[in-house]
Amino acid sequence: MMILAFPDYLSQAQRLAARLDVPLAEVVLHHFPDGESLIRLPPSLPEHVIVCRSLNQPNDKLIELLLCATTARELGAKRLTLVTPYLSYMRQDIANQPGEAVSQRIVGKLLAELFDDVLTVDPHLHRISSLTQAIPIKNAISLTAADEIGVFLKRQFKHALLLGPDSESKQWVAAIAENIGFDYAIAQKNRLGDKQVEMTLPDGDFCSKSVIIIDDMASTGRTIAKAAGLLQAAGSKDIYAVVTHALFCGDAYAHILKSGVKTIWSTDSIDHPSSCIKLDALLVDAIRAITR
Ligand code: R5P
């Protein structure tokens, strides 16, 4: 077995390789002036290769995965596993208007054609219950960072209220709250545009303890910032946030911190200064389970 790591996921992949006690090689990547990518892999590969890369900013990365997986097969890999803690293109699961691409199905099919196993963490599945419906292979495995986030929060706070900013976040917020015995509440959100959200907080006391906003991802940061603004208006003094996937597009991180959130933490599914919740133990257990 060998780990092939793309440069943007190198430190996380090194931790996986150390835990699994397997060699790691870095995918050599070059971007030509016109935007084309060149990738280079070690000239000979073992039977089982684990390719590691999160798919934030996905368009170039998907092409590079296609080049990588195809080349890895040519160089001798018989089994290809993709470890992609952040898996993009999962949100568009229906055509909202005639003619729209159902990206989840199309990207899922591409990954199923390239890889034997796909492992990811807290994918944004809305209308389907299993990742195999999006990526039609037996080992399309959806893990959750709920335990890791719960353990992290329990070390930081004796008591706190967890707040999910929308109904979709309930799955993650409820799981974390139940694991560590914290209360939780769920707000209602309506997205009006990429950077515009409306939100209503549920009834409740938001003043007497710390409130931690929990979501699967922060993209523009507007969801978390809106929740923080409403919490401040409701009297909260101690507001924090945790996301699994730190996409933080454009000014998102600064915008969240300006909105009254004291600290935002994230998992290391994507490398970012906030990424202090490590996922390597979770991923290694899953890799061991499929290779047993
Ligand atoms: C959507 O339902 C997701 O769970 C997140 O709430 C959303 O993607 C966050 O996006 P943004 O940071 O752009 O508000």
CA radius of gyration? 20 Å
Bound molecules: ribose-5-phosphate
* Low-pLDDT stretches: none
- Order of SSEs, N→C? EHEEEEHEHEEHEHEEEEHEHEEH
N-to-C terminal Cα separation, in Å?
Answer: 13 Å
Question: How many distinct beta strands?
Answer: 16
The percent range for strand residues is 25-35%
Let me know the largest β-sheet.
Answer: 6 strands, parallel
Number of helices: 8
User: What does the average pLDDT come to?
Assistant: 97
Strand arrangement in the largest pleated sheet: 2-1-5-6-7-8
Can you tell me about this structure?
With 292 residues, the chain is of the alpha/beta class. It has helices at 10-20, 58-74, 103-114, 146-156, 170-180, 222-233, 252-258, 280-291; strands spanning 2-5, 24-26, 28-31, 37-40, 48-52, 79-83, 117-121, 139-143, 161-164, 183-186, 188-193, 196-200, 211-218, 239-246, 263-267, 275-277. A hairpin with a 5-residue loop joins strand 3 and strand 4. The chain is globular and about 60 Å long. The site of ribose-5-phosphate has 14 residues, from strand 13 and helix 6.
Précis, in short:
By secondary structure, this protein is α/β, with parallel strands linked by helices. The chain has eight helices and 16 strands. Bound molecules: ribose-5-phosphate (R5P).
Topology:
Layout: E1 2-5, H1 10-20, E2 24-26, E3 28-31, E4 37-40, E5 48-52, H2 58-74, E6 79-83, H3 103-114, E7 117-121, E8 139-143, H4 146-156, E9 161-164, H5 170-180, E10 183-186, E11 188-193, E12 196-200, E13 211-218, H6 222-233, E14 239-246, H7 252-258, E15 263-267, E16 275-277, H8 280-291
Parallel strand pairs: 1-2, 1-5, 5-6, 6-7, 7-8, 9-10, 9-13, 13-14, 14-15, 15-16
Antiparallel strand pairs: 3-4, 11-12
The protein binds ribose-5-phosphate.
